[in-house]
Fold this protein.
Amino acid sequence: MKLLNLILIAIAAIRRNKFRSFLTMLGIVIGVGAVIAMLAIGNGSSASIRATISSMGTNLINIMPASQSQGGVRQSRSSSQTLDLEDVEYLQNNSTLINAISPELDSNGQIVYGSSNWPTQIYSGNQDYLLIKKYEIESGRVYSEKEIKNAAKVCLVGKTVIENIFDEGVDPIGESIRFEIIPLIIIGTLREKGDNTFGQDQDDMILAPYTTVQKRIMRQQYLRAIVVSAKSVDAIEETSAEIETLLRTSHRLTDSDEDDFEIRTQEELISNFGSISDMMLVLLGSIAAISLVVGGIGIMNIMYVSVTERTREIGLRMAMGGKGRDILRQFLLEAMLLSILGGIIGVGVGVLASTIVEAVLNWPILITLNSVVLSFLFCTLIGVFFGWYPASKAAALNPIEALRHE
Amino acid sequence: MNIAQQINKNNVILSLVDIHKYYHVGGETIKALNGINLSIKEGEFVAIMGASGSGKSTLLNILGCLDVPSMGEYQVSGTSVKELSKNQLADIRNQNIGFVFQSYNLLPRTSALENVELPLLYNPNIGSAERRERAEAALTAVGLKERMHHLSNQMSGGQQQRVAIARSIVNDPVVIFADEATGNLDTETSYEIMRLFQKLNEEGMTICSVTHEPDIATFTKRMVVFRDGFIVKDEKIHPSDIVLSQASSTSGFMD
């Protein structure tokens, strides 16, 4: 029997029982819809985490002092004194792979302007710091080389700080604020970056030359970190390896010594948070898959009833020359068509549901081709799997008894 | 001279030689057919009669290749069914046999045309254009040319049975088996259907009709009567009888 004829027969049978076909499909529609929506939400949050980390600088490599032990007591990282400006200079002169490098110091403190005050974080670096950490100037300018050299009392301010200490409409540029007891003149403002996925406000900060923070505020020789940008995302690993070799040489570490510094890349961060969001994805995916299986059982149930109800029709088809395998294929194809049709509608429902979630809850969503193809294949498989038993039952009927069936 | 040659010589298309059929029900053996010998020639119109349980339905199942005999030899157009597999029997039913049932057995909510096309869907050698053409021709032959696109459940019983008859002739079979084809119809419609069978028979179609109503049997040319698994009567019906029965039936209807 020709496949085309078989498809015609199956379509005709589905059309003859529109309402029942619709009910059967409903399970699959909901199942596939759930899979698409769940995967869209899972993938969306995962992509959003990745985007956040990228916005902090994908090429970013952080070099931090390793926490050290003194007499068996592990010290906090910030009290470690293994990184200094010589390291920055050494890397700058010897590395062939780094794109930009900056020392980094940061501290907490209270900002005071007139009668307003606000607790915030002061970050510091050289001119390349903005490039490496993906900060942009909204207005004004960045500090000059000369200002860095002189440890000038200048700073750039983030949006949140501006909003909290200045009245609306006041141009902060040129104003003098105090960070703790140190007066700083605002020479520029930073473009808004917004919250990152971890809920941290990236605009609640001020930025000053590292010399200013080092000499005037923190009064320390040592650096909190050295930040480096690699030439490209692909070069991160190579660059990290080079930095490690160079620093081990300059720190005169022997083979048996552990690194007295730690290199962290954004890729590691991405993979850490990636694994969390992957877990969520698997969880959501399995819940959705369960609903698909339930939908499949619905198909089996209806097909089973259908075989019983259409026993006479099966007998007739056999009397007209339909072979057992024709009947088997017909019912199998009906089940498959139902699940594929349900799958198509389900994809639409899933996309719609995802869009609604995005619009109403403001969650990030991402519909991938993979999730569509996956749920589609799963659907077809479900059709075959759950359609098989009722179809083989139909094929095994005796035509005489089937024709006599009331 | 063997059986196949005899069949060819005499235009015998269905030949039953010493057919037995046993059923096993709960350890008991029921003998439904006890040595049936019957030949049906091309162009015959046979009525198979008998009370229920006489074995006529069992015989029809065997004749229609829906069932195989427990013992004996049955040949359709010279082909013995004894050695055939289920699938081969299905092919014989598809290409050589037409069925008409008491309850029409049309697909519900399906047009007359699609119902008639059904047997041809199971024949891989027939394309969609030929299928449509033959179904239309069959519906025209049974007088339903104007109602081809009507749905089966929107038709009267007589019309539904006409669709079923169109379906039985669409594959150009060697024989049509009608199983109580008029059982669900009123007298007038029954006669209409029987006259349709007569017309088809005059055009050369071999028809074998199972019935327990004597007046329906008078439309045929030959009557085979069953009792307890045996043939008790096998005789020709004279044309004069037919005229008589039709006259009496018409007058009976007028009353």
Q: What stands out?
A: Chain A touches chain B at residues 1-2, 4-5, 8-9, 12, 16, 312-313, 315-326, 399-400, 403 (CB under 8 Å). The mean pLDDT of chain A is 85. DSSP finds 13 helices and twelve strands in chain A. The longest strand of chain A covers residues 98-113.
